From TrEMBL:
Family: Belongs to the NRAMP family.
Gene symbol of the encoding locus: mntH
Name recorded for this polypeptide: Divalent metal cation transporter MntH
Keyword Calcium assigned: no
Taxonomic superkingdom: Bacteria
Length: 453
């Protein structure tokens, strides 16, 4: 029986789709042979950083800080639960890519017809566009706050990010991973400094990680909690991770090397998502320590920027330096997310509809899909931060729709012995994955209804 299942898995691998995922980076990062644990971990580290970016993008910021401003440390438990969910989903995504040699888009396309594949591509593309809109807005607002560049011009400037990414790609994928890691470290240091300046009560922070019934009983707290979950678990990250883990040069036919690649991908992912968890906790702690009681006034990124230098709100520690550091972190976050969003757009376009076009054209199309709605909004309703940041609310709707489309097949594929062989999910992981798929789908439906309500 075991041999039959192994043969079935081997047959699947030999009959899968032709074409590598992200061919320009696939199998390009060397792994040292016969090296120690830490040296190999360093070689495998990198994809986790690009994935972690999606869990700390500008779309999270207002929700997390406003959560702290309105409810103190109450919602830290929600960030903890969301981060644990993210770790499980990203592990499954990385494992799918390593074991099958397919990214999630390719795997779904292989199991669906052409028409359904196009429908799923459109839904996923809308989710990526929604994510990219948040990054465009974050970068444009940061440029406006730092250099007084008009928002419309700032949005147009973000198109140049695509050509920056093309230039970085020429230097090698390892360089992109390094730059992203530096930007993440910048965000971490800035918010750690601002939280220390806010002098939060450590015992209150620890108490916030214990789930409390008030999260469910208070409608406002529940809505913010759902917003945190919705902004944390990003569908595009599942496509991204399943592709970029294949950049490493491990033997695709060697069982032991596959096991090693899966192990180090899990460690890399969990370490980087822990950093994202810490940053999200710092955001909420910043809101609780500095703005508790003023949450109703903190509705935009600009209002948060101004509040940090307002002594009437944050007291004696108020300083233009805090505001500037906040805007610098916002710009770093926007740039990070731009890189990963553009890569994901390429992955789903090639995986779902096998569209072949020059790399620069694919990436330019992906960025324009995000920029055009923001430009239209600015032209119709005025060049103000309140106008563009309202878009952030509605982008979450697209993400809510796309999440089940990504989670459901990921759970099915990674639980299949035919696709995964001995690497298929354990019974416990399968049960957890199905439970999360059902619960998160229900929560996202509720979030959509609440948003329009």
């Amino acid at each position: 029986m075991v041999n039959e299942k192994q043969q079935e898995h081997k047959h699947f691998l030999t009959t899968k789709l032709n074409g590598l995922s992200l061919p320009e980076i696939n199998n390009t990062v060397s792994i040292p042979k016969n090296a120690g644990f830490w040296k190999k971990l360093l070689a495998y580290s990198g994809p986790g950083a690009l994935v972690a970016v999606g869990y700390m993008d500008p779309g999270n910021w207002v929700t997390s800080i406003a959560g702290g401003a309105q409810f103190g440390y109450l919602l830290l438990s929600v960030i903890l639960i969301s981060s644990l969910i993210a770790m499980l989903l990203q592990y499954m995504s990385a494992k799918l890519g390593i074991v099958t040699g397919l990214d999630l888009a390719q795997a779904i396309r292989m199991r669906t017809g052409k028409k359904l594949g196009i429908v799923l591509w459109v839904i996923t593309e809308l989710a990526i566009m929604a994510t990219d809109i948040a990054e465009v807005i974050g970068s444009a607002v940061a440029l406006n706050l730092l250099f007084r560049i008009p928002l419309l011009l700032g949005v147009l400037i973000t198109v140049l990010d695509v050509f920056l990414l093309l230039m970085l790609t020429k230097l090698g994928f390892r360089k992109i991973e390094g730059i992203v890691s530096v930007l993440i470290a910048t965000i971490l240091v800035i918010f750690l400094y601002e939280v220390i300046m806010g002098q939060p009560v450590f015992s209150d922070i620890l108490a916030g990680f214990v789930p409390h019934k008030q999260v469910v009983e208070n409608k406002s707290a529940l809505f913010l909690a759902l917003g945190i979950v919705g902004a944390t678990v990003m569908p595009h990250n599942l496509y991204l991770h399943s592709s970029i883990v294949q950049a490493r040069q491990y033997d695709r036919e060697n069982r032991e090397e596959l096991k090693e690649a899966v192990k180090f991908a899990r460690i890399d992912s969990n370490l980087q998502l822990t950093v994202a968890f810490v940053i999200n906790c710092l955001l909420l702690t910043l809101g609780a320590a500095l703005f508790h009681g003023n949450g109703d006034h903190l509705t935009t990124l600009g209002s948060l920027y101004r509040a940090l230098s307002d002594k009437a709100i944050v007291g004696a520690i108020a300083s233009p330096v805090l505001s500037i550091l906040f805007a610098v972190a916002l710009l770093a976050s926007g740039q990070n997310s731009t890189i990963t969003g553009t890569l994901t757009g390429q992955i789903v376009m090639e995986g779902y509809i096998k569209l072949s076009m020059p790399v620069w054209a694919r990436r330019l199309v992906t960025r324009l899909l995000a920029v055009i709605p923001v430009i239209i909004c600015l032209l119709l309703f005025g060049d103000s931060e309140e106008v563009v940041e309202k878009l952030l609310i509605y982008t979450q709707v697209f993400l809510s729709i796309a999440l089940p489309v990504s989670m459901l097949p990921l759970t099915i594929f990674t639980s299949s012995r035919k696709m995964m062989g001995e690497f298929k999910n354990s019974l416990l992981v399968t049960i957890l994955a199905w439970a999360l798929t059902i619960v998160l789908t229900g929560l996202n439906v509720y979030l959509i209804m609440s948003t329009f309500g």
